[in-house]
Amino acid sequence: MIHPPGSSLLAISALAFSLGSLVSASTADARRASLAFPRVRLAYAGPVDDYWCPDEWKSLITPQWRTEADAKIGSFTAAWQAVGGALFKRTVRETRRAFSRREIEAAWFLCPGLPDTSIPFTLNFSMYLQAAADAHGLEAPESKDLFIDTLFHEPLHPYVAELLAARYPDGESPLLRRWRREEASYVEARAIRDLDLENFLAHLHLFAIQTAVYSDPVIRRAIRRASGQAEMLGEVIKQSRAMERPEYAEAWRVVNEVGAEPFLNEIRAR
To answer: What predicted TM-score, i.e. pTM, was given to this entire model?
Structure first.
């Protein structure tokens, strides 16, 4: 076929535009994938309460607990869904590293003596119940801001561990080696008792991420709308200092003194 003058150039231009669009779309898709973050799905873990909860704790779980939990879990989940995606999205923007999982299931239960854990991801919902607070002689249960923080905090543990393991052969970065030495000396000099050094180290990079994320003005507004908490970072630090175990307050002390950036830079390093 004979093309009129200029038609070949137009065809080539059209093809180049089409290929360019595909490349741009592919690049955009890759960029989105590189900043992927997980969706947390909450599910009641009945077997924990029915079979794994020790009898002395299981006996505390009354019908009132279950009724209140059923009434509350929807609004607490909605509060998380209003801000959770933004928290993880801000995380990957700060670290420039994607989460390896796209969905995480959080199993919640009511057994009062069991802790929240990151692997498997479990959540003790009894602490958010007024009936449970009454049983323990407390004035009020924990609020939605702690619920949001827990759902953000726990998935960060495997996330940070995976990133450090990929960068450092033994999973221990220069900062972790430094603070393993310095914290041991600090604890001995100040006679700080019962500090779990491994747990202290496990929270340094994690608290650096939370510092960066919770300090973002957009995140602060989103959390305030979702839970009413205007100063999430300050509240989390305050609660950590009030805990019986000293490693949480110590980890916040180090992150506040050193700053978040050195820890974030170790995660960002390729």
So the answer is: 0.86
C-beta separation of 130 from 71 below 8 A: no
What backbone torsions phi and psi does residue 5 show, to the nearest 5 degrees?
A: -50, 135
46 and 111 Cβ atoms separated by less than 8 Å: no
Phi, psi of 121 (to 5 degrees): -80, 105
**pLDDT digit string (tens) for the chain, length 270 residues:** 333 343 333 332 332 333 233 223 333 433 444 567 899 999 999 999 999 999 999 999 999 999 999 999 999 999 999 999 999 999 999 999 999 999 999 999 999 999 999 999 999 999 999 999 999 999 999 999 999 999 999 999 999 999 999 999 888 999 999 999 999 899 888 888 899 999 999 999 999 999 999 999 999 999 999 999 999 999 999 999 999 899 999 999 999 999 999 999 999 987
